[in-house]
Fold each of these.
Amino acid sequence: LKARTNLAIVLSQSGRVPEAEKMLNQNLAVQRRVLGSEHPDTLATMSSLAGVYTAQRRSAEARAILLEVLPVQKRDPRGAGTERLAERQAAESRAQNDNIRMLVIHRATV
């Protein structure tokens, strides 16, 4: 599921925003059902979807998602939500770079 979210982010960054939105929505539905709405991976996908909506100038939809995500992160019982979010974002950034490299290699071999 994380890989699909990362692929959707790469698609979005490549200008394939409608495809990214569709993939993120599909992935989010599965994550909510399997992991739950408050799982960190689900929250990360929600944040990514909010970013896609923002890129499409759909700020009301982006805001609605972020209003779901932020309270959950603030309720973190250990008070480390911000630190864990930063760690997760750094890991996702590394994964995105790996995915971009794989996409370039794939395109070069096709």
Note: Residues 81-109 form the longest helix (29 residues).
Amino acid sequence: RLAANQLETALQAYRQAISLDPASAEAHGRAARVLARLDRAVEAKQSLETALLLDPLHVEANVETARLQAATENWPAARRLLEHAVAADPANRAALYQLLLACRAQQDSA
């Protein structure tokens, strides 16, 4: 597990990448992942929204946004996002696994 200072260093690098290329969905998505690991959910959500505006099929951004939705038990939204991720990359294990969990949770809450 990365220490908080290593995560902050990674976040600075991603923010620098964003300043060099603001249209990089990849940089926004990776920054969001670091922010989520730092328990900065509001900032992570903002970065994810930007990534998805730039590239609606960005797999990592869809998976991370779905994780945030799942944390608040918004299963329909999580499932929709994960379906987008799987459509974009059917072999993505994280997307497939998270989709399975979201489907099960949605089924349990019905």
Note: The helical segments are 4-20, 25-37, 41-54, 59-71, 75-88, 93-109.
